[in-house]
Design goal:
Blueprint (H helix, E strand, L loop, with lengths): L16 E3 L5 E3 L10 H22 L7 H40 L16 E3 L2 E3 L3
Antiparallel strand pairs: 1-2, 3-4
């Protein structure tokens, strides 16, 4: 990092240094003119190497002969289980609603109500008496 080449003693500043808060100097790594930055070259190489490694890995994988049949069987089993659970849930909700409705109807008083007792006064509709009497 220290350039002590021709005419340099190592004490001169080149403009690539940066003084840190603690007083030490750091050199910035700047790409040479006409060359792509080092990170860009590494990114392309890294991408290529990863692609090759994944291709080698995928080439070594052998699928089981009955993998599709097994996966489809598991999926159908889960689907049947979902439908069975849904049917049981619907039956339970329907049964509960029916039982609650019957219980509410059973709680009604046994004596006839005021509306159907027949002991009420006659109601006059348009000047004509309607009702008993």
């Amino acid at each position: 990092m220290n350039d002590t080449g021709r005419g340099r003693t190592g004490n001169e500043r080149t403009g690539n240094e940066r003084t840190e808060k603690d007083g030490t100097e750091r050199r910035r790594m700047e790409p040479e003119r006409g060359r792509a930055p080092e990170g860009a070259v590494d990114a392309g190489r890294t991408e290529r190497e990863l692609s090759e490694a994944l291709e080698r890995l995928a080439g070594g994988v052998q699928a089981a002969p009955d993998a599709y049949r097994t996966a489809r069987g598991e999926w159908l089993r889960r689907e049947r289980r979902r439908r069975l659970v849904l049917a049981v849930l619907i039956a339970v909700v329907f049964t509960l609603a029916t039982l609650i409705g019957l219980w509410v109807l059973n709680q009604a008083p046994a004596d006839p109500g005021v509306i159907f007792s027949g002991a009420g006064k006659a109601v006059v509709l348009g000047g004509v008496a309607a009702g008993p009497g």
